[in-house]
Amino acid sequence: MVHLSNIYTRSGDDGSTGLGDGTRVPKHELRIAAYGTVDEASSTIGIARTHALPDPLPDRLRDVQNDLFDVGADLCVPGQAGDGLRIKESYVARLESWIDAANSGLEPLNSFILPGGGSGAAWLHLARTVSRRAERCVEELIARGDDVNPLTLHYLNRLSDLLFVYARVANDNGKLDVLWKPGGSEEESA
User: How many domains does the chain have?
Assistant: First the structure.
């Protein structure tokens, strides 16, 4: 259980921060950027949840926020801590089932979507892009040889897909989606 009595410790005033195993690293370290971006994704999802979203999106997005703390916990401990890993295949499978259920009620796309529509959908699109950035950070950690739970990468990949589909659901099941029209800005200004 987490117990926070003091919010500030002053231990990071030198530009370092502590990982889950107690190791001190610079705050600009890629691992810190990875789990910091995961936290940013969760915060963006939190903003989306303050807007009117159809059921079951608010509850599922709250579950995702909880999952993202698990992702961050996996990322803050160097290496794969054996039984301590939180993200498992079941997390990824759950997202896939939610994507399939939500996507089944949407019309197929014949164009890319411009982020926007309703305010809840716009925030979900932003959360999607932040999730993609977190995914790129994790992939870079893996590519440089850091020992990282690979399921964090799978989870973040699926999460961005879920957020895309949920943005469409929030846009009245795609009716409020703004479609990309190649060259459309040129046509309108002519």
Answer: 1
The answer to whether position 10 is within a domain reads: no
Query: Is the pTM above the cut of 0.85?
Result: yes
- Cα–Cα distance list, 165 to 2, 70, 113, 120, 130 (Å): 33, 23, 11, 13, 15
- Note the pLDDT tens digit of each residue in 92-148: 999 999 999 999 999 899 899 999 999 999 999 999 999 999 999 999 999 999 989
Q: What is the pLDDT of residues 48-78, one digit of tens each?
A: 999 999 999 999 999 999 999 999 999 988 7
188 Cβ contact list (under 8 Å, min separation 6): none
Q: What is the CATH number of the domain that holds 104?
A: 1.20.1200.10
Amino acid at 140: E
